[in-house]
Input
Amino acid sequence: MFKNYIKLTFKVLGRRKFFTFISLFGISFTLTILMIITAFLDNELGAHAPVSDQHKMTFIDRVAMKYMAKDTVYDIDTTYVDGRMTVDTNTNIREWMNRSSVSSASFHMLDQYYRKVPFAENYAFYAESGVFDVFVEQRKLALGGIYTDERYWRVFDFEFLEGGPYDRSAIENQEQVVVISNLTRSDYFGTDEPVLGREIKLENKHYKVVGVIKEVSSSRSFVKSEIYLPYTHLPATRLQDKDLMGPFEAVFVAENAGKVRNIKEEISSIATTIPLPDPEDYNLLEVRSKTYSEAYAQNLIYEEDASKSKRYVLLIIGALLGLFIFLPTLNLINVNVTRILERSSEIGVRKAFGANQTNLLVQFVFENVILTIFGGILGFIIAYILIFIINDSQAMGNVQLVFNPSTFIYGFGITVFFGIVSGLIPAWRMSRLHIIKALKENLS
Amino acid sequence: MIELNSISKVYRTKTVETLALDNINLKVDKGEFLSVMGPSGCGKSTLLNIIGLLDEPTRGDVVIDAQGISNYKTRALARFRNQKLGFIFQSFHLINDLSVLDNVELPLIYRPLGAAKRREMAEEALESVGLKNRMKHLPSQLSGGQKQRVAIARAIVGRPEIILADEPTGNLDSVMGGEVMDILLKLNAEDATTIVMVTHDKRIAGKTHRLIRLFDGSQVN
Output
């Protein structure tokens, strides 16, 4: 029976070239867009180096100090009961935020309180340096830097093209060493050849290159930098300062993804034990922790509560993807209804000769799935070519979209969904058609 | 073989009610070749559709091969049609996208038969209507008479006990109509297939065992 359906499918598609073209175009175009979106999302949010452990990561990037004021509100209600006036009083204490200050954390606070967070099997502290202005052959290079500890290189699995990270002793001895990206290598040294041991001059100090990493996609803003230096090169005051606020951020890696929630709770719980410098000034400390995806979402839509940002972003992405799937599906259903209506006589004949509703449903859905699989294959090919062009032209900066197996699986799932949904509804409608009506009329 | 008891068929729209068949009682014996005649709109095709279980009567019972059909659900009706009945339509209703052989095979794909067996039976049916040499052609490559012979092959391929033909020669010239009629007569004579045929042609009806006439939905002598 299926051989018969396959034969018929190819004949029908070949004969109705216009419908076939419209359907194939709709499916392949939509799939191409979806594939590129999923490739982009996978690139942005997927567990790739240097954040392969992102599902286990929790970040502290903001510390908020607040002064919470309290007001006592005294309400008096007067009412008449049985002709007599009665008085009802109510006292409420209302808490409200009078002032707040938000910044990244100080080294002192992280060092003192966040070195032993339960459930974390690894952690790292780091601080963004701002931009170093460097002059090379009368060209100005603006190099972003990150000051890191030695653990940073174990938390984030950077791909080293040459050399390796600096170690603990280099940090403790304030050795003038630096890890650079391969783009910095080309920009600064004007070569793609090894530069290990060569020096780079930053703010009148010479730093020896000990490692070159593969450039990180600009979407990984947490870890993307042109240069990485030992944090001990920060001015001593920034490390010794007893303030709670400073330039540092922290990342914690849980034993497993399920423990991330526990780490977040522990971070908040530890915050309640940290004494505030001047309770008259600020009386509440919040150490804000977020997962990788929450932090990413917060970069797009800022909400104080990062989990809210994530919900909004997911909602928007979900709605857009839904729209991308829903609208073409509706269109395909419409095209398919017309296509199947043209074949009412065939439906009548098949029913007269013994086809039941299931036989017809299977036949038309099968035809549609074949068509959508073709559209899918076409979509994959076009998406593959487009991704190649996007990467090659660097249209999205240094974001490199990867055509990977998970994208293929999403795409294939979407293709089959298209095939079944857009075929099922018209097929179901047509399979219920009265035989006489189907035989008599040209319903289209 | 076929028994219609007090069959009436009323078509209703929002404003009009049309009585297509009025209290028809009819028996067709096994192996009989019956023709039905009458002016256009008298209910001939409706009668054939009811016998063929393609339409339901408003009142009355249909008994085929001693089985009351009234209580059959859609799926059982489909199976019954597939096993017992074959149809020939005036406008052939061949599927243009399929080859002659595939068209003839069509009733068999709804039976639990292997591809080889189906092909063998379809070739046999095409041979019996003299079109085995055209089995790879598309319907659009055939003449009207050939198309109707393909439709006959499709009707007989499943070896049904009853064939229902709705003006099978209506779209054909006299020579082609004669050829088609010869095949039907041969089928009836050699295989004892029961045939009910609607026709406008008195000469063709004269070749069958019995003729009934309808007028305004009623059977007349």
About this structure: Chain B has one domain: 2-220. DSSP finds seven helices and ten strands in chain B. Chain B touches chain A through 28 residues (CB under 8 Å). The mean pLDDT of chain B is 89.
